[in-house]
């Protein structure tokens, strides 16, 4: 049985129907009108135990609403959700023991308590044994360096510290299914790296993860599968590697030449490749179709005929593919 199963999941919100500006607000006060807005529109999603799934889409696509439906915070307008066989909305208390949730924009720490006290409160709420609590805190401390701010009041924490403490709160009861909504938002690169390594370890230890993020490095480092949603509907669902292999049909090499790069002359000399000026006058990027040429073939030909000072391969970028998926240029 899958750990999570959503069928035709739909959420419609009732929103004020008013014209913009002061006049529109006044008119709405006099005669209130509403219209329905479908934020999540018939989503089917099956997640097997141990999977790490990235849930991505442009602003307003319906990601957070989906997470709220999957965690039982919101009730679907139509469709069903089952998490470990339960309806997360009607069986919220039983469900809470098996899931961990983090909304990057919000905290579940008690604002005026030391971090340690928030964790202890959660320990009691979930009925975590002393031994398990100790072992988990030791592990979080090792991977997230909690120790330094355990005695600090939540409201005094930096954003990076707060997010690490919130992750510990979300995981203190060792949930089987974890939902993280933008866990790296606003963090600096070193904290992001640390969180990603932590999440990767969590997945390697068998936790099932659903991660929403606008940061594609989070997704590539932590998840194997990607679900792209747009306007409340699934636009793509499959392995990240397959998405890349399917849509990334070209590769690129950056060359640093001895002298200035003459793009028109290079195009004439190597008409099968696309040439573009690089960051400095002596740098140039050559793009080729990976189905037609092997990288070895391309490098052999370029080094033999151009004797570059240096060269590097450009990693195919998933960003480009996602951007095109968001723009509706690609279909599954
Ligand atoms: N409680 C609500 N009442 C009315 N509309 C809502 C409500 N919650 C969300 N929406 C609307 O539903 C749509 C989807 O919102 P949601 O927060 O799920 O998007 P998102 O994909 O998480 O976006 P972002 O990447 O910007 O966080 C948006 O247009 C939003 O304004």
From TrEMBL:
InterPro entries (alphabetical): AAA+_ATPase (IPR003593), ABC_transporter-like_ATP-bd (IPR003439), ABC_transporter-like_CS (IPR017871), ABC_transporter_ATP-binding (IPR050763), P-loop_NTPase (IPR027417)
UniProt xrefs under PROSITE patterns: ABC_TRANSPORTER_1, ABC_TRANSPORTER_2
Positions of the ABC transporter domain: 4-256
Cellular localisation: Cell membrane
GO terms for biological process, alphabetical: response to antibiotic
Gene Ontology cellular component annotations, sorted alphabetically: plasma membrane
A Pfam family assignment: ABC_tran
GO molecular function annotations of the record: ATP binding; ATP hydrolysis activity
Gene3D superfamilies, alphabetized: P-loop containing nucleotide triphosphate hydrolases (3.40.50.300)
Top-level taxon in the UniProt lineage: Bacteria
Membrane topology according to the record: Peripheral membrane protein
Regions crossing the membrane: none
Keyword terms, alphabetized: Antibiotic resistance, ATP-binding, Nucleotide-binding, Transport
Protein name: ATP-binding cassette domain-containing protein
Native organism: Glycomyces paridis
Organism taxonomic ancestry: Bacteria, Bacillati, Actinomycetota, Actinomycetes, Glycomycetales
């Amino acid at each position: 049985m899958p750990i999570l199963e959503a069928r035709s999941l739909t959420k419609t919100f009732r929103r004020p129907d008013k014209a913009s500006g002061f006049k529109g607000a006044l008119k709405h006060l006099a005669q209130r009108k509403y219209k329905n807005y479908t934020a999540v529109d018939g989503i089917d999603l099956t997640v097997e135990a141990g999977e790490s799934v990235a849930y991505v889409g442009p602003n307003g696509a319906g990601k957070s609403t989906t997470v709220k439906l999957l965690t039982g915070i919101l009730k679907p307008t139509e469709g069903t959700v089952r998490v470990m066989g339960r309806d997360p909305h009607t069986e919220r208390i039983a469900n809470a023991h098996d899931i961990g949730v983090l909304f990057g924009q919000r905290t579940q720490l008690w604002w005026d308590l030391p971090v340690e006290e928030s964790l202890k409160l959660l320990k009691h709420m979930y009925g975590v044994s002393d031994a398990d609590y100790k072992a988990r805190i030791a592990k979080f401390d090792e991977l997230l360096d909690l120790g330094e701010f355990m005695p600090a009041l939540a409201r005094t924490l930096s954003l990076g510290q707060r997010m690490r403490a919130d992750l510990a709160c979300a995981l203190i009861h060792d949930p089987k299914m974890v939902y993280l909504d933008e866990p790296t938002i606003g963090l600096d690169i070193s904290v992001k790296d640390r969180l990603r390594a932590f999440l990767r370890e969590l997945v390697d230890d068998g936790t099932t993860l659903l991660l929403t993020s606008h940061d594609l490095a989070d997704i590539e480092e932590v998840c194997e599968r990607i679900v792209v949603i747009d306007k409340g509907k699934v636009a793509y669902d499959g392995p990240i590697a397959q998405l890349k292999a399917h849509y990334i049909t070209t590769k690129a090499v950056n060359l640093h030449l001895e002298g200035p790069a003459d793009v028109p002359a290079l195009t004439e000399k190597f008409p099968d490749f696309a040439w573009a000026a690089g960051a400095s006058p002596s740098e140039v990027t050559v793009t080729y179709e990976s189905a037609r040429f092997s990288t070895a073939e391309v490098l052999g030909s370029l080094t033999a005929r151009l004797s570059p000072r240096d060269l590097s391969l450009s990693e195919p970028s998933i960003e480009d593919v996602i951007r095109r998926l968001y723009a509706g240029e690609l279909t599954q």
